Amino acid sequence: MSKPPKPLVSVKDAQLHYRVGSAFSAMRGHSSVVKAVDGVTFEIQKGESVGLLGESGCGKTSMGRLLLKLEEATGGEIQFAGDALSGLKGPALKRYRAKAQLIFQNPFEAVNPRFTIRATLAEPLENAGIPAAEREGRIIEALELVRLPQPQQYLDRYPHQLSGGQLQRVVMARALILQPDFVVADEPVSMLDVSVRAGVLNVFRDVRDRLNLTAIYISHDLALVRYVCERTIVMYLGRIMEDGPTEDIVREPLHPYTKALVAAVPVPHPDQSHDPLPIGRGAPDPRNPPSGCVFRDRCPLAFDRCAKEAPALRPAGSRKVACHLF
Amino acid sequence: GDQIRTIDLFTRPQAAQPQEFQSIQLIAQEWRKLGLDVNVRVMPWEQMSDVVWYQRDNWDATAWQMVGRPERSDPDEIVFNLFHSTTADKGYNFIGYLNPEYDTVVEAERVEIDEAKRKELIDKAQEILAADQPNMMLVHPKQTFAFDKTVWDPASVVEQSGIGIRNTWTFMSLTPVGEQKDIILNSGDNVQAINPLYISGGVDSWVFELVYDRLVRVGPDGLPKAWAAESYEWKDDKTIAVTLREGMKWHDGEPVTPEDVKFSFETAVSGEAPMYAPFATNIENIAIDGSTITFTLKQPAASFVTSSLAKINLIPKHVWEPIIADLKTKEENAESYQEETPIGSGPFRFERWLTNEEIVLSANKDHFNAPKAERWILRIVPNVEAALGMLRSGEINFLAEFSGDPQVLLQAAEQDGDLETVSTVEMGFRYVAFNNRRPPFDDPAFRRALSTAVDRRLIVKAAYRGYAEPSNSVVSPALGFWHNEAVVEGFEAGHDVAVKILEDAGYTLEGDRLHYPGDQKETLAE
Amino acid sequence: MTETLLSVRDLKVSYQVGKGSIDAVDGASFDVPRGSIVGLVGESGCGKTTVARALTRVIADNASITGGQILFDGQDIAALPEREMNALRWRDIAFIPQSAMNSLDPVYTVEYQLNEVLRRRGGLGRRQARARCEELFEMVGIEAGRLGDYPHQFSGGMRQRVAIALALALNPKLVIADEPVTALDVIVQRQILDQLRELQSMLGISVILVTHDISVVAYVCDRTVVMYAGRIAEAGPMDAVLMEPSHPYTMGLRNAFPDLKGAASGVLTPIEGAPPNLAFPPPGCRFAPRCPFAVETCTTQQPALGMVAPDHRVSCHRADEAVKLRQEAARTETWLADA
Amino acid sequence: MLDTTLPRPGFVARFFRSLRLPLNDPFAVAGLTIYAIFILTAIFADAIAPYDPTEILYTPDYDLAADLRPGEDGFILGTTSLGRDIFSQIVYGTRSALLIGLTAAFMVALIGSIVGLVSGYFGGWVDALLMRLADVAFGIPFLPFVIVLAAFLEPSIWNVVIAMALVLWRDTGRVIRSQVLTLRSRSYVDAARVSGSSDFKIILRHIAPNILPLSFLYGSIAIGWAILTEASISFLGFGDPQSISWGYMLQDAFASQALAKQAYYWFVPPGVCIILVVSAGFFITRGYENLLFPKLGR
Amino acid sequence: MSHLKAMASRALQLALVLWAVVTILFLMFRLMPGNPMAAYIDPTFTVEQQEALMAQFGLDKPLWEQYLIYLGNLLQGELGQSFRYREPVAERLMTLLPNTLILTFSSLIVAYTFGILAGAYLAWRRGSVVENTAIPLVLTTRAMPEFWLGMVLLAVFSFWLGWFPAGGTRPAGASYDSLWALYTSREFLSYLALPALTLAIYSQGLPLLLMRSNMLDVMKEDFVTMARIKGLSNWSVVVRHAARNALLPVMTSFAIAVGYQLQGNVVVESVFSWPGLGRELVNAVSASDYPLAQGAFLMIAVVVILMNLIADLLYSLLDPRISHA
Ligand SMILES: Nc1ncnc2c1ncn2[C@@H]1O[C@H](COP(=O)(O)OP(=O)(O)OP(=O)(O)O)[C@@H](O)[C@H]1O
Ligand SMILES: Nc1ncnc2c1ncn2[C@@H]1O[C@H](COP(=O)(O)OP(=O)(O)OP(=O)(O)O)[C@@H](O)[C@H]1O
Ligand SMILES: [Mg+2]
Ligand SMILES: [Mg+2]
């Protein structure tokens, strides 16, 4: 498969291992390492938007944090526009901060409750050295971009005086105010009510297209990912299971895990399949992942080799799959 | 001259020494009226004595005290050790008082066996001190003790001159009137050690004076009285013959022999009991002939009977000989040796000691002066209020220490009805020591002025609630024979007197502050 | 229509806040037929939990049931003396809370907590209780060997299963499940829902399933009750409500949901605005401020819960125009125009 | 700094606002009122007190004015056994009590906050080192430490303050550290980092304001501790007789045998003052707790 | 493997903390003014005696050498010789430690029993008149200086009512076969009553307030609501579920309170003539008896450190979320 020569983001075998457990659990030998991200490799082209999909705890947020250098990778390499993130310091880091942004899951947590909307939005401008006189204009501009009508009225309000949907737009505005190239959105609508979700998603799609943003959209809901992203990466226990065009994945999932995932998504129609899911019960334990393929203990198709050997992420048609069956 | 620097005046904490503390507050206020800047510094005894004793050039004035002890019934220890030039460097003359005339007088007093002549010398010494005022004598406190008269027959209580009713004689003669036959008394201080070869805290001596006998004891009248000795007799001014009492027994049943006596005195100078050494160094030889023990001295010593024969505890040779031999090979000496059960020959036997709580002695019925009480129980009660409460509730029946206000005690006794109190003028005294080394205290006129500035009667009234005698002599009126009445009577006090002395000596007041006479510079201001 | 187990009539619940009060549930009426699953949907804060808790009569300290009737098996339990109500709890009406983590006492083993119900409330002996525990665990698909574990030793999905086991312990007639799957992943959610459905049909119990996700309703429920701002917007058989919604709010909800089965190019349409502040509700229809079809009467007059089809009730002044509105509502512009 | 185009409340006003005084809790208001009264008394002590608290007074007939009962010879609360005016002592005692209490509180809050902030925010070896230091401080029994310090330096009311600064930052430090840990994991801190704010700026802007009430809470606990400790130290005889404090008055009363003399007027007023000030601190603290951890309160 | 390593690192940590405390103590006392010799000052005190004493106490050696000797002795469990009492510090302190511990524990047990019950009750009755009057009262008890409280109790119950003796641990001259016999005797209880009551009154506030606020906290937890929905009795809900959970942090605060209490004892032991560590420490400090003061301080510090450790352990034992991780 041929690829355009220069990806904007390139992740090679990235790892993020957390050391967990207190002194006491350590005493009983429970001290352990959580491999939140364990050997993840992918590339994102400029202007592409990629969905990061997987169940809770599979390492989606961790991956996002790595990409934004909020967390230092414990292994592997991540490059942004050809520069390794691990080497960024001082002014270079500051420049990167202006180019890569994050949209948070819970808007109520993502803004300082003591800051007015104006102060919240002024912070990145201030850090980027935008003169005070220009800031107001930029703030209004950003709020208009996220379709917050009559932005002026919100400037002196405190976060709790806004609804969730409005606040999430503010969070988006903050991420966009410095006109970044790259945005990571971590489940930006999961805390919002259904009736307002659509609005935020629409704004996201819209802005992405208008600014030609490169974006990663993190979610556990395939329906949402499908709405926003043309490509999807499916993660399980810190690894990539499948990576390919969203429509292909929705239509014909290859990896057994993806199959279950697609089958499990509920639809708002009375007529739908009630067949049991093709996946075992139980939850993945990130502290003691199974040997070989991490999914094998829940996989209905697992065979001997799965226990011995971790499958590599290999091309399979339009996409890549990490499964011995492909 | 220069303005006189701020004078530091030390005192102990109010909680520990309320009267001293209050006296010092009053004195400081009077001195300030003279134009001095006085800084009262409160510190615990150990810190205070560290400065006063080991940093002799480093202080100005401090409250100090001498307590009454039976051995001090002879004035020699006080008049010599406190003021003689030989003790100025590292001894008890920490004030640095240097007066050759005084030195000669007290050197003569030491070796004068003739009482009348010695009395003259002692009087003279008191006069010199009164004139020089190396210290500012304050008061001889009255010791007030109390007991429960429903438990003890008041007639059996003995008042020892200069000491009070809390004394060995009382403990031996207290006669129960009812069921309670235990003497239960209090002390605010912990007992440190019960060791006949170690002079530790004051309370400790209450205990070992009962457990151990001495050849001589100072009697209730302040005069030495043969005790374990049947009798003693000066053969010449360097030889004294002592006859040991017959039939005495150690608490373990062994007989008390002249060998034991000899051993006791020899141990004092053996190097293993440094604190007792000074009391036996003057002995050249001890000879035994039957039950007679003959001490030959290196020099004549007027106070030998009181300060040596009545001081050295008699200890059993069979117990201590191996201990001393063992200690010779070690770094420690006998002072840090604590017997499991101290064995003496005294009127009380040691029973039990609970750290910081109580000590129990039981009557030695075999003693030649067997006590009437059954047990002697010392309770450690650091809280004065509690001690008084305990006396009233019967938890103790003899108040052996009371650092509080005597009026309170009297009032309590009156209310209670069962209590009797006895106040005795102490042979000890309270004073303010001046550092004679440092200006302006090197000037006798200045010292005199400070001393006269304070009306002792005010101190007696305000700090001691009337329970003290104003003092101007280190020899207490309690030692009737040695006390020089004239020095006290001739003492004039008052602000005006003090101002006049200062003016006469050339001190000037500028602004509100006192300045040195002439062109004298202040050399010690920081 | 099957026999009704529970009939809620004009229920009113209000919360005392400071000096004022919030009518969190303001005249809710709906029925729960025997042996059916009824979905209670609505967005956050519309009063779903308040209704669910009111049915158990264990409500917040500052809450009070200010009106209406709760007819359970013909008996008005809203008026029942506390002691009799307590006797009814769990034996007849059980509850599955949203977060099983917080609803299981962390310091006792799961077995202890099952036993507590079985023996104290069910009067079972030690042996019988043990057998029942094992039976229940088998029912919800957990090995009996894990009975002695503490709640924190289970994963989220398993804890939810434990909560289901606990709810079924005394064979209740009605199980109220307050958002039992909201905190769970899609796969686990699906598994739990399958389980719930299976057990419900096996035991023939009735279930009230509180959720804000109409997909969940679509997946398991027989009937749907849609709430909006403390009132019932629409109630009826599940397919009728979902496929032929008669209330503009329900129509809007349908538009706002992404659909994996639908066309890829579909556009989601939000309902602009936010639910009203319940302390100061709008005078007329509570949805009127966000409703693209609102007319004069809507802002002044409260609509009544009227019948649009047998067993299908809607509280909308324009309920009779439902078919027309439905067509209009399918167009995105309808909803944007009103922004 | 943030935005200069809009009028902003003055620094003082902002400071008080950020303390979030619990003005809706009746207890806390009572506490604040008590504080206010004592603070005023301390400030105007010279004007209020009729005498110097250490001056030994005499009656008109030149007798020592000792042991006078309240009201006698015009001494409002009577005199001590050394003839000092109790009312004046109470008034001046306010000064030292507040001086000790407030400085100790300030030190404890300041040091504890800095340690907590640095430790919690930066983590790693700085955290490890500071927390081991806290362990050591936890291993040092406080009252004995003050006694030793009082013996080490001279008796002075500042010993208590120094000891508290040296030892008691540990509680504040630990609590604030854990608070910082949770604050640090808030998304808005990440947001600030992503938007390019420096660590220092984040601590100052986003974290410090949030722990301010907590520092204040620990500060007000420290006020009580300091005053009580000073009293205990005085009682044990390690106090400073030069500066009259309530603790000193209590020990003076007991040294003068107030109980046996039934001189309640010696120890009731200072005792009541201590109880008032310390309880006031507790009341405020509780108001804060209700505010900071609202689920605790009712 | 990692098990052993973790244990070792924990032990090392503890040892480091102890070493730091020991070193601080050593320096503090050595640099303190005052001189142990002061206890011997007497008109008959000679120069030779002074020098002999200095040598005997090792005070003539340089500081670092004294420090090494001190550390060496400590490692062998020796705390040195008391200057004042001329006896081994360890021996002396060991006779006092049981008294202090029994006072501490008995008062804390009373305080915690009362505090927990009252705290739970007040949480249950929140908003009532009882609660509104009780809370300020409790806060006031914590605001009273302990010695003040002690003296007042002494005046009332001992001097005035005569119900309890005024000081000590036993009747004068009474002897017991063993410490155990003493501690289990009725007389001992009457001696223990007042000091323990003083400490208990002072310390009940902490468990009470803690219990109360924990209860209020826990009562809002879902599992308590669930217990209600399950139709369990009030008793079950409040005691089995709410109180049991609220108790956890209170129990661990017990261990830490022991540490605090040991410090507070200093004052109460002086008021009630209780032969304990605290009083000894105060005496030793004012007597510049370094070895004794150091020893007493160290002993208290060790108990405090141990108690902190026990608090940690206790929590992990009592809370299944930690113990069954
Ligand atoms: N700071 C941390 N310390 C230790 N472990 C962590 C930390 N952050 C995350 N983890 C663990 O790493 C794993 C991956 O977490 P992550 O938050 O990346 O998952 P996620 O896919 O975003 O999950 P969710 O959908 O719940 O947000 C989880 O097991 C989590 O418990
Ligand atoms: N204890 C309470 N005191 C005051 N108001 C309350 C209380 N509990 C709930 N409310 C208010 O009552 C309304 C209904 O709350 P309820 O919890 O029933 O909603 P819900 O539909 O369950 O919402 P969610 O989907 O968020 O769980 C909300 O506006 C809420 O703010
Ligand atoms: Mg996440
Ligand atoms: Mg709810």
From TrEMBL, chain A:
Taxonomy, superkingdom: Bacteria
Record localization: Cell inner membrane
Q: Which UniProt keywords apply?
A: ATP-binding, Nucleotide-binding, Transport
Coiled coil regions in record: none
Topology within the bilayer: Peripheral membrane protein
Q: Per its record, what are the GO molecular function terms? A: ATP binding
- Name the Pfam families on file: ABC_tran, oligo_HPY
Q: Which InterPro entries match?
A: AAA+_ATPase, ABC_transp_ATP-bind, ABC_transporter-like_ATP-bd, ABC_transporter-like_CS, Oligopep_ABC_C, P-loop_NTPase
Source organism of this protein record: Nitratireductor aquimarinus
Q: Which family does it belong to?
A: Belongs to the ABC transporter superfamily.
Annotated ABC transporter domain ranges read 11-262
Q: What is the protein's given name? A: ABC transporter ATP-binding protein
From TrEMBL, chain C:
Fetch the PROSITE patterns from UniProt: ABC_TRANSPORTER_1 (PS00211), ABC_TRANSPORTER_2 (PS50893)
Keyword flag Transport: yes
- Where found, per UniProt? Cell inner membrane
Q: Per UniProt, what is one GO molecular function of this protein?
A: ATP binding
Q: Which UniProt keywords apply?
A: ATP-binding, Cell membrane, Membrane, Nucleotide-binding, Transport
Q: How does it sit in the membrane?
A: Peripheral membrane protein
Q: Which SUPFAM superfamilies match?
A: P-loop containing nucleoside triphosphate hydrolases
Query: Where in this chain does the record put each ABC transporter domain?
Result: 8-254
Mind telling me which CDD domains this protein's record contains?
ABC_NikE_OppD_transporters (cd03257)
Which superkingdom, per the lineage? Bacteria
Database matches in InterPro entries: AAA+_ATPase (IPR003593), ABC_Ni/Peptide_Import (IPR050388), ABC_transporter-like_ATP-bd (IPR003439), ABC_transporter-like_CS (IPR017871), Oligopep_ABC_C (IPR013563), P-loop_NTPase (IPR027417)
Q: Work out whether the entry's keyword set contains Transmembrane helix.
A: no
Tell me the protein family, please.
Answer: Belongs to the ABC transporter superfamily.
Instruction: Indicate what this protein is called per its UniProt record.
Output: ABC transporter ATP-binding protein
Native source species:
Nitratireductor aquimarinus
TrEMBL record, chain D:
Q: Which organism is it from?
A: Nitratireductor aquimarinus
Q: How does the protein associate with the membrane?
A: Multi-pass membrane protein
Give yes or no: UniProt keyword Nucleotide-binding: no
Q: Which domain of life is it from?
A: Bacteria
Keyword Disulfide bond, does the record have it?
Answer: no
TM ranges are 27-49, 97-122, 142-169, 207-228, 263-285
Pfam families, alphabetized: BPD_transp_1, OppC_N
Which InterPro entries does the record match to this protein? BP-dependent_transpt_permease (IPR050366), MetI-like (IPR000515), MetI-like_sf (IPR035906), OppC_N (IPR025966)
- List, alphabetically, the SUPFAM superfamilies matched: MetI-like
In the record, the note on similarity to other proteins reads: Belongs to the binding-protein-dependent transport system permease family.
Q: Where is the ABC transmembrane type-1 domain?
A: 94-285
Name this polypeptide is given: ABC transporter permease
Chief subcellular location equals membrane
Q: Where in the cell is it found?
A: Cell membrane
Q: Could you tell me the keywords of this UniProt record?
A: Cell membrane, Membrane, Peptide transport, Protein transport, Transmembrane, Transmembrane helix, Transport
PANTHER family annotated for this entry? D,D-DIPEPTIDE TRANSPORT SYSTEM PERMEASE PROTEIN DDPC-RELATED (PTHR43386:SF1), OLIGOPEPTIDE TRANSPORT SYSTEM PERMEASE PROTEIN APPC (PTHR43386)
From TrEMBL, chain E:
- Family matches, as CDD domains: TM_PBP2 (cd06261)
Q: Which InterPro entries match?
A: BPD_transp_1_N, MetI-like, MetI-like_sf
Subcellular compartments? Cell membrane
Q: Which residues form the signal peptide?
A: none
Q: Name one Pfam family in it.
A: BPD_transp_1
Stretches that traverse the bilayer:
12-32, 101-124, 145-168, 188-210, 246-263, 296-318
Alphabetically ordered keywords of this record: Cell membrane, Membrane, Transmembrane, Transmembrane helix, Transport
The way it spans or sits in the membrane comes to: Multi-pass membrane protein
Residue span(s) of domain ABC transmembrane type-1: 97-315
Q: Does the keyword Phosphoprotein apply?
A: no
The family assignment reads: Belongs to the binding-protein-dependent transport system permease family.
Which PANTHER family does this entry report, sorted A to Z?
A: ABC TRANSPORTER PERMEASE PROTEIN, DIPEPTIDE TRANSPORT SYSTEM PERMEASE PROTEIN DPPB-RELATED
Query: Could you tell me what this protein is called?
Result: ABC transporter permease
Provenance organism: Nitratireductor rhodophyticola
